[in-house]
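WARN no homologs supplied; continuing
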Amino acid sequence: MKRLDLIRHLEQHGCEFLREGGNHTIYVNRATKKVSAVPRHREIIEFTARKICMDLEIPRP
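OK structure emitted
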């Protein structure tokens, strides 16, 4: 999955950019008070994308 597609999916479901880490971008779902890190790679493995969505408690892409 493309990184930009995942970020677009996160933002459509209420997640917000929190900060940039060393190798990751941190996103937060303020409704559920959950935080997850999105790696800074152009391609993100499907398993990782599903794990990020599970961590933030939003539907899978």
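The chain has a mean pLDDT of 96.
OK
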